[in-house]
Write a structure and sequence with these properties.
The complex is a heterotrimer of chains A (313), B (483) and C (313). Chain A is mostly helical and 313 residues long. Helix content of chain A is 77%, strand content 1%. Chain C has a single domain, classed as ABC transporter involved in vitamin B12 uptake, BtuC (Orthogonal Bundle), CATH 1.10.3470. The chains are: A mainly alpha (313), B alpha/beta (483), C mainly alpha (313). Chains in contact: A-B, A-C, B-C. At the A-C interface, helix 5, helix 6, helix 12 and helix 14 of A face helix 7 and helix 14 of C.
Chain lengths: 313, 483, 313
């Protein structure tokens, strides 16, 4: 029990569970299954972008990918336009989503490297261009996703939403990558100290490049799935995922200063973030309070996390 | 505690400072009287910079008291020290490069505010520069970023001696001549004598023992955090002073070998400099005063031979950092992870890390270099500085790289650990590894087969075999440009 | 003789402003008049104020990602409380300035990444803005409106105000002791500390001063637009950062230039008009902004290269 409490991710799960209970208490258990399935589905999207963002944040201070929402939107619009509702093109569509992610990732790191600017500024500038590309592709048309794919993203297997299963699979892969491969060690080293990592002979540029690539690809896949789930791509579909992707990483127990990441915590935090919103909705509170709560939660978590670190020293 | 020197400008009584297990200061008492210049000497790590930090208020001792003008100062801090007229010129330059000289002077003197301060400050700093370095030719309105290193040092010294209404009473100069040429150094030392003659006090720290012997009215020798000798001017001659400082390493020089015949494994040419080369199995030293381009060259060599984009199967070079906190250890990790991070490629199969292989590698090296810990899974920060440094050596030596670059790796390491590591380096060199070793410790240079001396970013001298002595290195570091 | 680096730094914004102005006059000769200039630079004043605010944060080596939401929040307060109950409105704005000072202190004391803290605060400001003004509306205080539409002789209000702002900010930040202290903290915090200055107070002061300029930006913006909404100034985050960089400032090292920053803000405002005169498709308007930012950063890099070459020679 003590060992469990020492895990940094346990808190996000405790928080998610208590909010879940608080919500059910109000609805008197009327929509328990529905609420849980919705929570799992929407959390799954946050988890997908959150994992990518987590890899980037692991690289250390200043590393945040702000092009995530634009990438999601572009991937959603381009793939739906390409698939044009035909079931036969689903896999090709996925391939195109991945290509979109790869291109954005390459351009992001090219900017970071070539202009030697903080990644946050580079990815922000890039996100404007990507967003424009999405607007240009979309042209206000709303194309329906292929029926098979739309069904797949909205249905459940064994009572668990398919989307959640996909996110779980990717989470496991991310965990293996992070803890069982040299690459995971290397990015953790870079996040703790870039000069020390370089001096230890780590191919720093290669590692950072792969990380930005990975983040963009995950965002693109998430955009592809989200567009199919919601029955079409919208130009603002990625907007809320910008801050969400950062928030779930920070609340999930990953060190904001880098070097220490945490896959399970992202699940707890994603569930928590969705459940808080639905709880506030249940209590009849509006968007303003929700935003303030999100901000306060992020700052509180950073403060608590920095307190832990200062205590350890 | 009774006051032994009622008229002292500043007196430190029985000060003790510990960094982890290392006693940086061990019950040091020092009284600085008006009108005297104290020459403070000792090897790196003897406690000189620690006593300076205590005197200027940036470090409060774990034990001990500080007096000034026969009153006890408690609490003591930077603000109190400055109000008592204590000024300090640090070894590493500490100006704000984005500000002008006038603005930097304003930062240094808190009391100079008010309308029209620019004109006042300009007058003060210009007067001080003229007084210390007549004919300096520096425009005090210009930005610091545009100045050469020597000019920055001149500005910093002039700032310390400047009178802003709070006259300087005790000026601490830490290696003030390291970037100055002979003429400017002479101007400075002349000003120190004038300042002392008018009742000011100076603490002068320098590796140039001649400067100490010529300028100081009292010489204080430190070793291992204690004052081991203290005599008036004329009480020491050069040899006596060297002897009093003691020698950390003495007798291993005999192990030197000549490698003139073997193929060089590493070569580099620097602009306006003698070429650099290192041969298989050779220990090459990089000497000279700190910050004269040695680290920059090590980094350049490392960058040239280490991968940036794609990990290499067979690393060509490996690096042992001296500044552990900055670019050595990974704080959040265990000892084991810290040790194996440079050789993860060797410890994985089909892309996955092999725990068993990693644990075994850790156990091997723990036994081999005696890392003092019950468990390699403990956090790296649980180790003492010396043992952390051993982990960094293990990290480098456990790679298959044929060349090891070392950037002043013995900073803040205790004597016992140093001896163990010296032995390891020698043994690895015998086995065919090449070491390139930058150190500010003269004794460590004497362990090298060959030494390059740096000045102002260039190699100015190459010393081989018996020519590697403290005097020769110092002569080359200061007069290399002329030689 | 070498041109001083400061002059060279100021050259880039001045030259780009003149080039853009020439381009606009070439495309639209009618712009060369009092009313034309007034239209072109209409929105420049609030952007210039926000740029100065961002510059103060960047002077102490931090970055404020909540600038846009904060200015929006101020605009909402100005259009409601400041108009209806001026005393309460002023008290709210003073409290917001104090909140900025506290934020600066916390970032320094707990050694937190300013990017993440300000990101969290951006939620809070956005939430407060939504609470105050759930739908676009409100009325600008008459005095703010009057100040913004006044027509001084010879030059339009926007240009006169920008010039006054540039001179005022220059005196405050480049000539005063307080300005020296702030820039010293950015240049070499350790040496400022060694001289016995309280760093906490300096940082709190920098943040509070930045908030003051941002408050002025929000009020000016409302004066121009007559009403407010919660998303009115979201793009100010990017514009302010770009303006500082374009004006010769750097992300670290306390190298800033208030005059350059104001010119940078004018250039960016003009770039918007220039793009519309070029008849760039509205799809690519956002993308063009991103591209301009990238070009600006590339120019800066080029200039830095030239500078360091000059130093070596």
């Amino acid at each position: 029990m003590k060992a469990l409490l020492a895990k940094p991710w346990i808190w996000s799960f405790i928080a998610a569970l208590s909010v879940w209970l608080a919500t059910i208490a109000v609805t008197r258990g009327a929509s328990t299954v529905g609420l849980s399935q919705a929570a799992l589905t929407f959390a799954a999207f946050s988890v997908l972008v959150g994992i990518g963002q987590m890899f980037v944040i692991t690289l250390g201070p200043g590393n945040i990918d702000l092009s995530v929402p634009a990438t999601m939107t572009l991937a959603g619009t381009v793939t739906l336009k390409y698939m044009d509702g035909q079931n036969g093109l689903i896999l090709q569509g996925l391939g195109i989503a991945i290509m979109v992610g790869v291109s954005v990732g390459v351009l992001n790191y090219a900017l970071i490297k070539a202009l030697r600017i903080p990644p946050i500024i580079a990815t922000l500038s890039m996100s404007f261009i990507v967003q424009s590309a999405a607007i240009w592709t979309n042209r206000g048309l709303r194309i329906k996703p292929p029926q098979v794919l739309a069904d797949f993203t909205t249905l459940t297997s064994f009572g668990i939403p398919n989307i959640a299963l996909i996110a779980l699979l990717i989470s496991i892969l991310a965990w293996v990558l992070l803890h069982r491969t040299p690459y995971g060690r290397w990015i953790a080293a870079i996040g703790q100290s870039l000069p020390a990592a370089r001096m230890a002979g780590i191919a720093v540029d290669g590692c950072r490049f792969v990380t930005y690539l990975l983040c963009a690809v995950l965002a693109a896949i998430c955009g592809y799935l989200l567009a199919c789930f919601s029955g079409g791509a919208a130009l603002n579909m990625g907007t809320e995922y910008l801050l969400m992707s950062i928030a779930v990483v920070v609340i999930g127990g990953t060190a904001v200063a880098g070097g220490d990441s945490n896959v399970p915590g992202i699940w707890g935090a994603s569930l928590f973030m969705f459940l808080v919103v639905s709880m506030l909705n249940t209590y009849g509170l509006g968007a303003g309070v929700r935003l303030i709560m999100t901000g306060v939660i992020i700052i509180t978590v950073i403060l608590l996390a920095s307190g832990r670190k200062a205590g350890a020293r | 505690m009774p006051l032994s020197h009622p008229s002292a400008v500043l007196e430190v009584a029985n000060a003790t400072v510990r960094f982890g297990e290392v006693r940086a200061l061990d019950g040091v008492s020092l009284a600085i009287m008006p009108g005297e210049c104290i020459g403070l000497v000792g090897h790196n790590g003897a406690g000189k910079s620690t006593i300076v930090a205590v005197i200027n208020g940036s470090l409060s001792p774990h034990q001990g008291e500080i007096f000034s003008d026969s009153t006890r100062l408690a609490p003591y801090g930077i603000g109190v020290a400055r109000s008592r007229g204590v000024r300090c010129v640090f070894q590493e330059l500490s100006l704000c490069p984005n500000l002008s000289i006038v603005e930097n002077t304003r930062i240094m003197h808190r009391n100079l505010g008010g309308f029209g301060w620019r004109a006042r400050v300009r007058g003060i700093i210009a007067a001080s520069l003229d007084a210390v370095f007549p004919g300096h030719g520096i425009d005090v309105g210009g930005p610091v970023g545009a100045l050469s290193i020597a000019q920055r040092q001149m500005v910093e010294i002039a700032m310390a001696f400047s009178d802003s209404g709070q006259p300087p009473r005790l000026v601490i100069l830490d290696e003030p001549t390291s970037s100055l040429d002979a003429g400017l150094a002479a101007q400075l030392l002349a000003h120190v004598r004038r300042f002392v003659a008018t009742g000011g006090a100076v603490i002068l720290i320098s590796h140039m023992l001649n400067e100490i012997l010529e300028t100081a009215s009292r010489v204080v020798v430190m070793k291992d955090g204690k004052i081991v000798a203290e005599r008036g001017a004329g009480g020491f001659d050069h040899a006596g002073l060297v002897k009093a400082m003691g020698s950390a390493v003495a007798h291993q020089a005999a192990a030197r070998r000549s490698h003139a015949a073997t193929e060089p494994v590493l070569e580099l040419s620097l602009p306006k400099s003698q070429p650099f080369r290192a041969c298989k199995g050779e220990v090459v030293g990089l000497a000279g005063l700190g910050g004269h381009g040695q680290t920059r060259m090590l980094l350049a060599m490392f960058d040239r031979h280490s991968p940036q984009w794609w990990p290499r199967r067979d690393p060509a070079v490996t690096f042992v950092a001296g500044d552990r906190r900055e670019n050595g250890i990974f704080d959040l990790w265990s000892i084991l992870k810290n040790m194996t991070v440079a050789s993860l490629g060797d410890l994985s199969r089909r892309g996955l890390l092999q725990d068993a292989a990693e644990t075994k590698r850790g156990a091997d090296w723990k036994a081999r270099i005696e890392i003092r810990t019950p468990d390699m899974e403990n956090p790296i920060l649980s180790l003492s500085g010396g043992n952390q440094q051993k982990v960094l050596f293990a990290r480098a030596l456990s790679t298959r790289a044929p060349v090891v670059l070392m950037d002043d790796p013995m900073r803040g390491v205790d004597v016992g650990t140093k001896q163990e590591v010296y032995g390891m380096i020698r043994a690895e060199a015998e086995a065919g590894r090449t070491f390139v070793w930058y150190s500010t410790e003269m004794e460590e240079m004497q362990l090298c087969d060959r030494v390059y001396v740096f000045r102002n970013g260039a190699i100015v001298a190459e010393l081989v075999g018996d020519a590697i002595s403290e005097q020769d290195i110092l002569r080359a570091s200061f007069e290399g440009a002329a030689a | 003789m070498r041109i001083s680096t400061d002059t060279l730094r100021l050259a880039v914004p001045v030259v780009s402003l003149l080039l853009l102005l020439a381009g606009v006059f070439y495309l639209q000769p009618r712009a060369m008049s009092y009313t034309g200039l007034n239209l072109l630079f209409n929105l420049a004043v609030p952007i210039a104020l926000a740029t100065i605010a961002q510059m103060l944060i960047m002077a102490v080596n931090d970055l404020d990602l909540s600038m846009g939401t904060f200015v929006s929040f101020v605009a909402c307060v100005a259009a409601t409380y400041l108009h209806d109950t001026p005393l309460l409105g002023a008290a709210i704005l003073l409290a917001a300035i104090a909140a900025y000072a506290v934020m600066g202190v916390i970032i320094y004391l707990r050694d937190l990444p300013s990017i993440v803290v300000t990101l969290g605060m951006s939620f809070v400001w956005a939430g407060l803005a939504v609470l105050i003004l759930p739908a676009p509306g409100g009325t600008a205080p008459e005095w703010a409106r009057a100040a913004m539409i006044s027509k001084p002789p010879l030059m339009p209000m926007a240009i006169v105000a920008s010039a006054v702002l540039a001179v005022f900010a220059h005196l405050l930040i480049m000539r005063s002791s307080f300005g020296v202290l702030i820039r010293g903290v950015g240049g070499n915090q350790r040496s400022v500390l060694r001289a016995g200055w309280p760093i906490v107070a300096a940082r709190a002061g920098a943040y509070a001063l930045a908030a003051t300029f941002a408050v002025a930006a929000g009020i000016c913006l409302v004066g121009l637009t007559t009403s407010a909404d919660a998303n009115i100034a979201l793009r100010y985050t990017l514009l302010s950062i770009a303006g500082v960089i374009l004006g010769g400032g750097e992300f670290t090292g306390g190298r800033i230039s208030p005059i350059g920053a104001v010119i940078g803000a004018l250039t960016l405002t003009l770039a918007g008009s220039f793009l519309s005169f070029l008849r760039i498709s509205p799809d690519w308007q956002i993308g063009a902004q991103g591209a301009i930012l990238i070009i600006v950063l590339a120019l800066r890099l080029l200039l830095n290269r030239l500078e360091s070459k000059g130093d070596m020679a």
